[in-house]
């Protein structure tokens, strides 16, 4: 008799999905955001790929360059990732000479992060095509229209979306 593994015999139970009126979903904007993000990161991705790096490296180099002297804890808070996720990326960037880590002046246990000249140059090289893409997209827009775009993007950040409760499953 052949025994099947537990994973093959166990039936997957999917959670009940909420009933959603798909006519109320703004698919056009959702897809525009997907495609805009894909294209926005494509130029830096190509530069990073030549170095054997990915988007996590880009985010670290970007924020350390924008806020020199930030602590590792600050960076973890901005990126909203675990120490373990950051550790590998940060080590690679330090070992490659893009980021410098120094003890804090008041608390020697505190680790402060600074871009090296190479790190600053990498950050600028990654940001330049993105800045060009933004300038092209906003070309011909009034200052008010540009402010509207920025308000929209700020409004998209850090939102919590309430999921409707399934009335039958609610207690």
From TrEMBL:
<dbReference type="InterPro" id="IPR039422">
    <property type="entry name" value="MarR/SlyA-like"/>
</dbReference>
<protein>
    <submittedName>
        <fullName>MarR family transcriptional regulator</fullName>
    </submittedName>
</protein>
<dbReference type="InterPro" id="IPR036390">
    <property type="entry name" value="WH_DNA-bd_sf"/>
</dbReference>
<keyword id="KW-0804">Transcription</keyword>
<keyword id="KW-0805">Transcription regulation</keyword>
<dbReference type="InterPro" id="IPR036388">
    <property type="entry name" value="WH-like_DNA-bd_sf"/>
</dbReference>
<keyword id="KW-0238">DNA-binding</keyword>
<dbReference type="Pfam" id="PF12802">
    <property type="entry name" value="MarR_2"/>
</dbReference>
<dbReference type="InterPro" id="IPR023187">
    <property type="entry name" value="Tscrpt_reg_MarR-type_CS"/>
</dbReference>
<feature type="domain" description="HTH marR-type">
    <location>
        <begin position="26"/>
        <end position="158"/>
    </location>
</feature>
<dbReference type="InterPro" id="IPR000835">
    <property type="entry name" value="HTH_MarR-typ"/>
</dbReference>
């Amino acid at each position: 008799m052949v025994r099947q593994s537990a994973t093959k015999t166990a039936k997957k139970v999917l959670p009940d999905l909420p009933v959603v009126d798909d006519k109320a979903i703004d698919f056009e904007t959702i897809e525009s955001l997907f495609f805009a993000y894909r294209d926005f990161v494509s130029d830096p991705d190509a530069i990073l790929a030549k170095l054997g790096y990915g988007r996590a490296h880009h985010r670290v180099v970007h924020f350390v360059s924008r806020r020199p002297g930030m602590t590792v804890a600050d960076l973890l808070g901005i990126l909203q990732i675990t120490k373990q996720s950051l550790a590998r990326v940060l080590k690679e960037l330090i070992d490659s000479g893009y980021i410098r880590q120094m003890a804090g002046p008041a608390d020697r246990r505190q680790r402060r992060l600074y871009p090296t000249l190479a790190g600053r140059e990498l950050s600028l090289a990654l940001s330049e095509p993105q800045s060009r893409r933004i300038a092209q997209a906003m070309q011909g827009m009034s200052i008010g229209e540009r402010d509207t775009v920025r308000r929209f993007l700020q409004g998209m950040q850090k939102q919590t979306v309430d999921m409707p409760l399934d009335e039958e499953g609610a207690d």
